[in-house]
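Service request form, structural biology core

Requester: graduate student, group of Dr. S.
Request type: structure prediction, single chain
Budget code: on file
Notes: please return the result as structure tokens.

Sequence provided:
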Amino acid sequence: MRVNLIPGTHGAYPRPYITIQCTSLRMEYLYVQTAAFPSPFLAVTMVDTITGTTVAAMRSIYYHSFATLALSFWDFLTTFGDEVCYIWPMKKRHAFKWLYIFHRHFLLVVQITSQIAFPLLPAVSSPTSYNCRALLTVMTVLVECANFTLEFILAFRVFALFGRRPWVSRLLGCLILGEIICCMPTSFSGLSSYAGGILFQLSPDVNIQMAFTMVVHSTLISLTVARHISIGRTRGNGSNIVSQFTRDGTATFLMVMGLIGLGVATSAAKDLQPIILFFWALTCHSICGSRLILGMARIQDHMGTLREDENVLLTTHIDVFLTEDLD
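Core staff response, request fulfilled:
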């Protein structure tokens, strides 16, 4: 700890101002500037309280980061067999193979890299805050890309279930495009108000984007459930496909709603650090996106033995039986 006394005045009596710089957990820096204290004991008490709060916040961030990384590794190991069986044989030109690589492997590498980078960054504003701003920009872009690619996968599934009806593509396309347009100014506003360090506050504009995301995902799951209900009494491959899509879509919807709930709680509670949203967003989108693609790949493999039926629609990467129960 280094204490610098800077001459100054306070009220009618000359008193020094104290600038305290202390180094705490993992090289984060805390800057406090306050007036002279009535006694050195009060000064020590205030510094200890502020430092303890910062260390507790940093510790919470590390706990969340390790928990999300462990969850991602667990999901990677449990689905690795299916990945080898269904994803590896795909040709390189398949878009969903690259989407799987992005959600499963690239986002996992980002999480591992974050474990190395975050301990080297300052907790609050410091001379190295420009590194934090660059990292926050990259984090924002990655989370948005993960969210929009996940919505594309879900929209593709709904589009296939409805037999490639044009109104479905127009509806979902307009919703996702509206969300993209909304995220640009809100993200810029958040970056503009960023003060530095990894202990920061979310911009109120983020709530607008979370509302758009909720509308998009609610529409996707509503269309899927509506399709499931419309053929609920039928039997056959079409009914089984829609049932699986409904289960997977519901699980994804619940995870996304949980993530949005965490975002709302983070905006309202001061003891929750917004940076933990980055870790949980990467993990949720990684698990949901990769498992959705694996589910479609399983259906594709199962339908491979039924290709002799001419009443099959191949929609890029998934087969949906156009039997009377799906009409």
